[in-house]
Amino acid sequence: MTPTVLDAPLLGTEPPPPAVPPRPLRPFIPHGEPDTEAPLSAGTWAAHGGVTLLPLGAVWAATRVGGDTRLGATAAEAAAGTVLASLPGRFLFVHPSYPQGRWMELEVGAFGAAMVVTPPIAALGTWGMGEVAFNDSQDRGHAYLGALGGATVGMLLGLAAHEGLKHLAGSSERLDFVRRYLAFSLIGTGATVGYQWSRTPTPRP
Fold it and tell me: Out of the domains of life, which is the source (predicted)?
């Protein structure tokens, strides 16, 4: 078959680009959704370790602000406050159903109720452990108010620490359980410091 003019390549036309090998696709993670596989930086690990020292230091400080210098007693009081704080305190970390939208009224109500209920319950745990298991106070009402004030301050510090560490972690869910219980422990140790600072122990026989 004889070639014609139409079969000749056109002048000024560019050759097709070379084929590019396809790149491996990464898993799609929507904005705002947690990524359980995202690694944490060394600075984030160090920040978590540093915040862990705060509850331990608060337990030691509780032995210096009151009349009870027994480290075991203050540790038990802090543990009781931490455990009871974790019951309603889990609602302090509710997340919106739609990260880009407005919080639902139920979630806002749960968060507000937890803000109100958590300090009194945590203070009750610390106060009850100190009054029943150890030496009771001369003025129990004043001692409970001290525990309540300390638990309230500890809750605010715990929420701030949790949000700060969560911001450092980004979308990673690693150590999320640790961050929450660090916040609970700050509530319990705050209640212990307030309880020991405000109480006057009954003299031992």
Answer: Bacteria
